UniProtKB/TrEMBL annotation:
Pfam families, alphabetized: Epimerase
Gene this protein is translated from: galE
Listed name of the protein: UDP-glucose 4-epimerase
Keywords, in A-Z order: Carbohydrate metabolism, Isomerase, NAD
Known cofactor(s): NAD(+)
EC annotation from Swiss-Prot or TrEMBL: 5.1.3.2
Length: 320
């Protein structure tokens, strides 16, 4: 069975595409390379360069490769930047998803796994986020992901589309030495770039009501995330009914201070992070339960914090 992975040349999408191959499901990658890298696509995997906004290209790709399901990872993923570029965010994430669903309906492709985001919850004022926690996104990015879930829901009513959405927070680590996080906004790349350049990483806010005063978040290994996407695709291919959405969460979270300590420990680069004031809008703690995904998708945190740091650092060093 062939699965189209949109955004499959990006950090997350490339891991998903490679995990599909390892599971015996044939991937085809579509990516416009706006943030992805052609080199991240494994040799032998069909690659189509183009945008999900190009309906004709999608129709041709679905037909040419006899696609039977889609894992939709493509999108504009920078929550902070989305506040400054809302129209661009909605075009890429909402209109892009609409165009994709229209092409799927035209070609009779009836299965989709949507790579959503825990940003749909916003600054949830609960100890543990569950799938039914109220949705209150605080950025155009989070709003666009929630709208994407609505589009899947409504298309399922109209056409019987089989679907599920996977919501997650911070993705780190590397499952392959030649695939790594190149985002200019994520914590791990920022910390690593600072160390490589001889600068001191920075912690924003040390007076939060958490055990060590720094933010607590869910950090999950990208290989575990990719495995969950493949499990969802396999379930849909088997005709199993899935929940509309699943959280891929750790259940307890990790603080920014713990991240910094692990980076120093694993890399062998001793440093004491600079301490700065809080950033506006940063909540103290956001952690999700992954119980529902564990029940239906075999979700598990298979990597320790040190595993996450070590694999990410090794890939960063290999990249030069």
């Amino acid at each position: 069975m062939t699965w189209l992975v949109t955004g499959g040349a990006g950090y997350i999408g490339a891991h998903v595409a490679r995990a599909l191959r390892e599971a015996g499901l044939d991937p085809v990658v579509l990516d416009d390379l706006s943030s992805g890298h052609r080199a991240f696509v494994a040799p032998g995997t069909p690659f189509v360069e183009g945008s999900i906004l190009d309906g004709e290209l999608l129709l041709d790709t679905l037909s040419e490769h006899e696609v039977e399901g889609v894992i939709h990872v493509a999108g504009f993923k920078y929550a902070g930047v989305s506040v400054e570029r809302p129209l661009h965010t909605y075009r890429q994430n909402v209109e892009g998803t609409r165009v994709l669903l229209a092409a799927m309906a035209d070609r009779g492709v009836g299965r989709i796994v949507f790579s959503s985001s825990a940003a749909v919850y916003g600054n949830a004022d609960v100890d543990l986020v569950v799938e039914d926690t109220p949705k209150n996104p605080t950025s155009p990015y989070g709003e666009s992901k929630l709208i994407g879930e609505w589009l899947l829901r409504d298309q399922a009513v109209a056409t019987g589309l089989a679907h599920t959405s996977l919501r997650y927070f911070n993705v780190v680590g590397s499952g392959f030495p030649d695939v790594y996080d190149t985002s200019p906004h994520n914590l791990f790349p920022l910390v690593f770039d600072a160390l490589v350049a001889g600068r001191t990483p920075r912690i924003n806010g040390t007076d939060y009501p958490t055990p060590d005063g720094t933010n607590v978040r869910d950090y999950i290994h990208v290989a575990d995330l990719a495995r969950a996407h493949v499990a969802a695709a396999a379930a849909l291919a088997e005709g199993r009914a899935l929940e509309p959405a699943y959280n891929l969460g750790s259940g307890d979270g990790v603080s920014v201070r713990q991240i910094m300590d692990a980076v120093a420990r694993v890399t062998g680069i001793a440093f004491e992070p600079e301490l700065g004031p809080r950033r506006a809008g940063d909540p103290a703690r956001i952690v999700a339960s992954g119980d529902r995904a564990a029940r239906d998708l075999g979700w598990a945190m298979r990597h320790s914090l040190d595993d996450m740091v070590a694999s990410a650092w090794a890939a960063r060093v290999a990249a030069g």
